[in-house]
Structure formats: structure tokens, C-alpha cells
Amino acid sequence: EQEDTEFLQIIEDAISVSLRARDLTQQLLTFSKGGVPVKKNTDLSYLLKKTITFLVRGSKSRARFEMDENLQWVRIDQGQIDQVITNIVINALQAMPEGGEITVKGQNYIPHGAEKIKLDKDNYVKIEISDQGCGIPEEVLDKIFDPFYTTKQTGSGLGLAISYSIIKKHGGYIVLESILDQGTTFTIYL
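Given the sequence above, the corresponding C-alpha cells read:
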């Protein structure tokens, strides 16, 4: 019986390592091939709620949604944007090991020139995903979207680089603000 338990543990470990290798390979392929988005009209409000609710389930954190009632649909590759949301939320959960709140805001947005980046279209959907985590030191903020840059011992440093690439290929923008010991906010314009 003990041999069976040890054998099962070895198999479970092998499966876990294989799945992590598969995920890393998929991320590398997405990053290297460019992953041209296959876009279709999407209810972003629904996608955000579904994905984030699933991700926080079983964690010590919870999600709070503040979405415009009439949030316009966007033309996106659902799988790729889901990957962006997942990367951001996983980072948020890791930044709050004792739990906390992830606030997700969605609004129809018309640029007015006061933004920190140059928005070149007439209107966007603006998504903000904020955590109450440890924050990111100011000296590394410029490196956060660089491939293979990571502050984690077990991270690949690809998640946010791929997220940046995906948003850019959608004709959108992603920026972040962070205050040490207060939290981080990712803002996405699509």
C-alpha cells in the first residue's frame, strides 16, 4: 500500500511537471510566432467576470466588479485576452498571499488627452484590474513587460511580456501603476 502511494505521487509529480512544460512551451510559441489574433465581437464584461471569478475561487482573495452597464462589445481574440486577464490576476493573487480584494473596473472611454499614453482612436473600452498586494518597486517598473524578466523564483518572466504583445497586436495599450505595499493597477485600453 505504501509503495502504491509513493508510485501515485511520482505519477502525479510527473503529470504536474509535464503540464507546466506544456504551458511554458505554449507561451514561448505564442511569443515567438506572434500569435495573430482571431477576432470576433465579444462581451468583455462577461469574459472578465467569468475568468476572474474562476481564478479567485478557492483563494483567500475576492473580486469586486464595477462595470459600465452598457459596456460596449469589443472585437478581440477571446483566448488571447483571456490569457492576458489570467496573467494579470495570477500576479495579483501571488502579490496577496494573505488574501485581499481584486477590483475590476470596465468603462466606455473617450480619450481626452490627459492620459499618460497617446490614444489614437475615438473611443475605447478601458479595463482596470487593481490589487492590494505588495506592489512593484519603482526601479523595476520599466522592466515588467520585458521577456524573461521576473521577480519570482519560479516564474518564467513571460506572462506579462506575452500580455503586452497580445494587447499591442489588438491595437490596444496596457500600462501599469504600482505603489510599494499598497498595490498595483493594470489598465488596458481596447
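Strands lie at 40-42, 62-67, 74-76, 101-109, 124-130, 173-179, 183-189. Try to locate this feature in the C-alpha cell string yourself.
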